[in-house]
């Protein structure tokens, strides 16, 4: 196993808490599962598990900060619950690629949509912010979404009541800016 593969295993240890716990509990067995040589196992096992855990947590906090900036309304409304959901989610998904923060936020939004959350209109706010992220990355797009609540008022101090809302995002070509409009209809 070369340097690149060793670095890949180290990255897995930093991002996968279950693997990290298993490795430091039994480095020989888990190291062999990962295809490490005996000297590589000894070298990785010599690293303080406390240091690895601290670095792994700092990576998660950085991810949380990036995702919070990309889903600001949802983060504000969910408060501490946003962090709790993120810690659970971060165990299941590791972002890859050059736009990893945006992809991380989209995947986290998908994760939140599978959870039971209150108030009920948070789902609309979350879908709205997620659609912004998806539309922003598209060189050409037309995205249309219906919401049961006025997404532009969600997360404010205003009383929230149901109001059918249509949101449209469009971009004609990659050099044009992203356009967006909202329309509302009262729900009888």
Give structural notes.
The protein is of the alpha+beta class and 188 residues long. Among the domains are: 1-47; 139-188, no CATH class. The protein is 57% helix and 13% strand. The chain has nine helices and three strands. It has helices at residues 3-15, 17-25, 27-33, 38-45, 49-70, 72-78, 80-90, 100-113, 122-137; strands spanning 141-147, 163-171, 179-186. The chain has a three-stranded antiparallel sheet with strand order 1-2-3, covered by helices on one side. A hairpin with a 7-residue loop joins strand 2 (163-171) and strand 3. The radius of gyration is 21 Å and the shape is elongated. It starts with a helix and ends with a strand. The relative contact order is 0.09. The mean pLDDT is 89.
**What is the gyration radius calculated from CA atoms?**
21 Å
Major sheet details: 3 strands, antiparallel
- In which order are the strands of the major sheet placed? 1-2-3
Report the count of strand segments.
3
What percent of residues are in strands? 5-15%
> What is the string of helix and strand elements?
HHHHHHHHHEEE
Helical content, roughly? 55-70%
Low-pLDDT residue spans? none
- Put simply, the count of helices is 9
């Amino acid at each position: 196993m070369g340097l690149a593969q060793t670095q890949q295993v180290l990255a897995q240890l930093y991002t996968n808490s279950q693997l990290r716990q298993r490795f430091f509990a039994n480095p020989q067995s888990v190291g062999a599962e990962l295809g490490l040589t005996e000297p590589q196992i000894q070298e990785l096992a010599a690293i303080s598990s406390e240091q690895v855990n601290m670095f792994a947590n700092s990576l998660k906090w950085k991810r949380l900060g990036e995702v919070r900036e990309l889903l600001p309304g949802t983060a504000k409304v969910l408060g501490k619950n946003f962090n709790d959901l993120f810690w659970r989610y971060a165990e299941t998904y590791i972002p890859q690629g050059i736009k990893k923060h945006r992809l991380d936020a989209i995947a986290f939004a998908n994760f939140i949509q599978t959870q039971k959350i209150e108030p009920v209109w948070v789902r609309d706010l979350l879908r709205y912010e997620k659609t912004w992220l998806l539309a922003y990355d598209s060189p050409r797009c037309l995205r249309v979404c219906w919401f049961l609540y006025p997404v532009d008022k969600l997360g404010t101090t205003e009383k929230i009541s149901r109001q059918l809302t249509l949101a449209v995002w469009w971009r004609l070509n990659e050099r044009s800016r992203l356009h967006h409009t909202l329309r509302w209809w009262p729900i009888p």
